[in-house]
């Protein structure tokens, strides 16, 4: 059985795990990454696409800025739309901050290329990944690879294994609480080979539900529709998708350009925060510790923020000081709850909540009228717009 030894064993080669490995390496801390999918599967997942200003700066500091700067879109605005009126939220003019629109799969491609250049140890297609002895001084990770059982002994294990990974579940149940919330709607997300019809993302509330248009590059746009969480992708032909998008995104004088749809996926809308992101010698980063509804575009940014905080803590630990590492969970959770309240606010502002046994039809209609008024207020108030801009582009604290 191959026995390996490293300072930090990382489970999961999503953006959080890959970025942590690179960040540690830049400070002379070694790691091994274990991933249960293949590299092609990792690169094939289409997900987030909005980078806060500080996330883009973190990636640039780690030498990942070249393609992002050349191919990503620096955007200084979004549009909020309701009742056929579109409000321009101009981050640049309001607070002089911006976001970068660059697909998560492109970031992962850049991260994997950087790891390849650096000769990092990454085990793709690992099976039966398990963590052991996280409370003791010699935590271990075991996994099957190429027909052989491997074991890694490490100083620390980092769970970067997403919402369904093994790491969070390895913390004893009595030691962790999960704050969990499911929304009664989902997103149908499509990637279309079509130049963006707008210079900034459009977030629209419509009688039929939420719709969004997000530029991704000069030739690619992402588009989203609120759908019932029990809907099947098969029920959405390209023609039906474009028809719904045209309806929900329409305003006088705006033309939504149509084109070939490259992918379609339905994602349930969910929020989850673990009460702790560290236990013994195990730490959780990214979706392994918390999941955000995508409306605030924070999931990937939260992962990048976790990496920045944990990486600094681990580097300080190996340099002889434990204070930062001991504070990781509290600091990352404080930032996480700031992001959660914003994502919740955006989600509740922009989706039609279906009536249910809890929310009667008149109450659902009341909510909708109130949402329309809130968007009208944001359109009229520079203070409300500045607050939105500050939270969307990333809190500076
Ligand atoms: P990831 O990207 O889920 O990566 C986790 C990695 O761990 C691997 N893994 C394991 N490896 C070894 N052993 C095991 N037992 C393992 N179990 C899992 C997985 O194969 C995977 O490679 O988590 P990470 O790195 O924390 O990154 C977080 C982001 O991916 C996530 O926050 C965002 O993409 C969320 N999200 C979105 N966020 C946005 O801000 N805007 C969006 O538009 C947006 N769209 C999305 C999304 C997440 C989605 N998923 C997870 C359903 C759309 C989708 C479909």
pLDDT average, as an integer?
95
* Count of helical stretches: 12
Range of helix content: 25-40%
Radius of gyration: 22 Å
Distance between the termini: 46 Å
Instruction: Assign the CATH superfamily of the domain at 3-49 and 103-177 and 275-343.
Output: FAD/NAD(P)-binding domain
Structure write-up:
The chain is an alpha+beta fold. The protein has a domain at about 5-50 and about 105-175 and about 275-345: 3-Layer(bba) Sandwich (FAD/NAD(P)-binding domain), CATH 3.50.50. It has twelve helices and 19 strands. Strands 1, 2, 8, 9, 10, 11, 17 and 18 form an eight-stranded mixed sheet that branches. Helix 1 (about 15-25) packs parallel to helix 6 (about 105-120), helix 8 runs antiparallel to helix 10 (about 330-350) and helix 11 crosses helix 12. The longest helix has 23 residues, at about 330-350. The protein is globular, with a radius of gyration of 22 Å. The N and C termini lie far apart (about 45 Å). The relative contact order is 0.17. The model has no long low-confidence stretch (mean pLDDT about 95).
